[in-house]
Amino acid sequence: MYLVVDPWAKFSQSELDFASADSAMGHAADLALGIALAQPQRKVICLNGDGSMLMTLGSLVTAVESGARNFILFVVQNDTYEVTGNQSIPGAGHLDFVAIARGAGFKRTYFFDDPKDYKACLKEVLSGQGPVFVAARVQKGTEGPLSRGPKVKESYLKPSLAESAHKIRKVLTEAAATKYGANSNLAGQ
Ligand SMILES: Cc1ncc(C[n+]2csc(CCOP(=O)(O)OP(=O)(O)O)c2C)c(N)n1
Ligand SMILES: [Mg+2]
């Protein structure tokens, strides 16, 4: 989900961050869940778009059913497909992602529409046992398509998506082999 990937790129120093935001849409949550299940020693944080989350709602049920205790899923709710021109998503204005997540079986869910509450609660959200579902309501913005390539300032957006995918796979595989256990954060669509 684009509106988070660009700001995240400015902060990221980690090879374990992965931006899947410039190809087929809708699979960030599935990918993150797969990594969480494959690497239970690692906490996996997925930042998903609301339009993208709607494409794979079944993943919510799978996340609970699979018992992924190390999985934290954020959905950033701007009510639009921002990157393609802010077209309204289905259910814009009344869609209740937390109700959907609870219906899927998530026991730990959070909803934020005030940055102060978000800041105060973030430590709690990120600690303890998952799976955790977070819906964060934000204002509409005007993020354009994601830029990648050697000229981009942010280090984790310099590689192509294919190179990034190979890189994170390698890091995760090596990490699993050595039991090296930093967190993995995924921002995507
Ligand atoms: C299968 C597929 N359908 C459509 C697109 C075009 N597309 C890319 S991003 C996007 C909207 C993403 O919306 P959302 O997840 O809400 O993220 P936001 O841009 O609002 O941050 C669309 C329609 C695509 N890349 N792949
Ligand atoms: Mg959106």
The rounded distance between the terminal residues' Cα atoms is: 4 Å
Number of domains: 1
- CATH hierarchy: architecture: 3-Layer(aba) Sandwich
Shape: globular
What's the total count of β strands? 8
Task: Briefly note the structural class of the backbone.
Answer: alpha/beta
Can you give the helix content as a percent range? 25-40%
Output the CATH class name.
Answer: Alpha Beta
Runs in which pLDDT lies below 50 for 5 or more consecutive residues are none
SSE layout and pairings?
Blueprint: H1 2-11, E1 17-20, H2 28-38, E2 44-49, H3 50-55, H4 58-65, E3 71-77, E4 80-81, E5 87-88, H5 97-104, E6 108-112, H6 115-126, E7 132-137, H7 161-178, E8 184-188
The structure holds thiamine diphosphate (TPP) and magnesium ion.
The site of magnesium ion has 7 residues, from helix 3 and strand 4.
Briefly summarize what is shown.
With 189 residues, the protein is an alpha/beta fold. It contains 7 helices and 8 strands. It binds thiamine diphosphate and magnesium ion (MG).
Structure commentary:
With 189 residues, this protein is an alpha/beta fold. It has a single domain (2-187), classed as Rossmann fold (3-Layer(aba) Sandwich). Helix content is 39%, strand content 20%. The protein is built from seven helices and eight strands, in the order αβαβααβββαβαβαβ. The protein has helices at residues 2-11, 28-38, 50-55, 58-65, 97-104, 115-126, 161-178; strands spanning 17-20, 44-49, 71-77, 80-81, 87-88, 108-112, 132-137, 184-188. It has a six-stranded parallel beta sheet with strand order 1-8-2-3-7-6, with helices on both faces. Strands 4-5 form a two-stranded antiparallel ribbon. Helix 6 links the parallel strand 6 (108-112) and strand 7. The model has no long low-confidence stretch (mean pLDDT 90). Bound molecules: thiamine diphosphate (TPP) and magnesium ion.
